[in-house]
Write a structure and sequence with these properties.
This protein has 201 residues and is α/β, with parallel strands linked by helices. The chain folds into 2 domains: 119 residues, 2-Layer Sandwich (Nucleotidyltransferase, domain 5); 71 residues, Nucleotidyltransferase, domain 5 (2-Layer Sandwich), CATH 3.30.420. Helices cover 27% and strands 25% of the residues. The strands form 2 sheets. The chain has a 5-stranded mixed sheet with strand order 3-2-1-4-5, sandwiched between helices. A 4-stranded mixed sheet has the order 8-7-6-9. Helix 3 packs across helix 6. The chain is globular. It starts with a strand and ends in a 28-residue tail after the last helix.
C-alpha cells in the first residue's frame, strides 16, 4: 500500500511517500510546489504516479490559502488516479511528532490555533493556559516564544524539525479513507478577506 501524503497548511509544507508504514522519503517545500515535491519523491523511489494507492492531506487549521491548495491538489490527484483519500488535522500531526507537546500554529491577527481539551481552537497566546514545563511546538510557538517561555513553557530552537507538521505522520495517522470530494477543511474562522473592515472575529 503506497501512500502519498502532504500538508500545506503552515509556513512550511511537507510531502511524504510511505509504503506499509515505512517512510520512503519526505521533503519540505512550499504549498505552491507540493506537486513538484511529490514528483521528485516518486522519481527518487523509482515509482510512477500510478503506483500510489491512496492520498492523505492535512486539513488545517492554518493558512486559508494553504489549506485550499492542499485540498484542491488532493482532489485533483485522487480524481486523476482514481484512488481514495483521507484528511488529517495539521494539529494532530504536529502533536504526534512530539508526544506530550502542545501544538501551536500561527493564526495571524495575534492568535494561534491549538488543541484545548482535545479540540481544535483559535485563541490568543495568553489563553493557551500552558503550565511550567509544557513543550510547545509549531510556527506559532516560534512566533510567540517570549510570551510562552515567560509563562514557563519550553519551545525548541527555531530551526527544530519539531515545529514542522510532517506529512509522514499524516500518512500514519490516517484511518478513514473515501472520496476526495468528502474531505472537509478545518478553518476555525473566516479568512481575512471575509472580515468586514473595522471588525474583528
Amino acid at each position: 500500500m503506497l501512500t502519498l501524503a502532504f500538508d500545506t497548511a503552515t509556513t512550511v509544507a511537507t510531502c511524504a511517500l510511505v509504503r506499509d508504514g515505512e517512510v520512503l522519503g519526505e521533503r519540505t517545500t512550499s504549498a505552491a510546489r507540493v506537486l513538484e515535491a511529490a514528483d521528485h519523491l516518486l522519481s527518487e523511489s523509482g515509482l510512477a504516479a500510478e503506483a500510489v494507492s491512496r492520498l492523505v492531506v492535512g486539513t488545517g487549521p492554518g493558512s486559508f490559502t494553504g489549506i485550499r491548495i492542499g485540498l484542491a491538489t488532493a482532489r485533483a490527484l485522487a480524481f486523476a488516479l482514481q484512488i481514495p483519500s483521507a484528511g488529517v488535522s495539521t494539529l494532530a500531526a504536529l502533536a504526534a511528532g512530539s508526544p506530550g507537546a502542545k501544538p501551536v500554529i500561527d493564526a495571524r491577527r495575534g492568535e494561534v490555533f491549538t488543541l484545548l481539551a482535545g479540540a481544535a481552537a483559535c485563541v490568543s497566546p495568553g489563553e493557551l493556559g500552558v503550565e511550567k514545563g509544557t513543550l510547545c511546538v509549531g510556527d506559532g510557538a516560534v512566533r510567540y516564544r517570549a510570551a510562552l517561555e515567560s509563562a514557563g513553557a519550553t519551545v525548541p530552537s527555531d530551526a527544530s524539525r519539531a515545529h514542522v507538521p510532517h506529512a509522514s505522520l499524516h500518512a500514519l495517522l490516517a484511518d478513514a479513507f473515501g472520496p476526495a470530494e468528502d474531505l472537509e477543511p478545518l478553518y476555525l474562522r473566516l479568512p481575512d478577506a471575509d472580515v468586514p473592515k473595522g471588525k474583528t472575529l
